[in-house]
Amino acid sequence: MDTPPEARDLDLCLCHSCGLACDMTDEPQACPRCDAALHRRKPNAITRTWAYMLAALVFYIPANLLPVMNTQMLGEGADSTIISGVIEFWQSGAWDIALIIFIASIAVPGIKFVVLTLLLVTAQRRSTWAQVQRAKLYRLVEVIGYWSMLDVLVVALVAALVKFQALSDIEPRPGILFFGLVVLFTMLSAMSFDPRLIWDTQPSEEVMDEVASH
């Protein structure tokens, strides 16, 4: 059975912004429809993904250790971290809000770190292991990335509810800034990874040349 030609065999490149199949015969620098920069592959995909993910991991530590908000009730104030906030909501009976914050603030970033590390390591090793499942994992990371700011919205909702109560106030703390950076860098990390690397199972030309020389 004949194998259908690939896009590179036809000198075609898919625009990452609008999806137009662009003719790369003359190596155009921009998409003729939306003027976005054209790349046959995402440039430095593995390096950029590692850099963004490690930056997010660094910010993930203070995001969970530092307080994210300060609540004052009847003149008495208390700082709350993400974990302590989850515990307080759970103990007060608001288990749904506690569950949302726990999943969005702790579970989702942790899952993204594990999945992206797995994708990066296997892509660098050009592994053929579970390629379909790894592609699905990447799509999962993309989907959950849309809900990364969910707990920030919950904190904003809680702040609004507290403001309605008499003799009470709420203020943000540095932890919320670090968590926002975690969300930003994990999203950039997922966007920088090129899922086509999952299917690149043959050694690169540079590696083949090096093997041949020995």
TrEMBL record:
NAD among keywords: no
Cell compartments where the protein resides: Cell inner membrane
Domain of life: Bacteria
Keywords: Cell inner membrane, Cell membrane, Membrane, Transmembrane, Transmembrane helix
Transmembrane segments: 50-69, 97-122, 143-162, 174-193
Any one annotated GO CC term: plasma membrane
Primary localisation category: membrane
Keyword DNA repair: no
Descriptive protein name: Paraquat-inducible membrane protein A
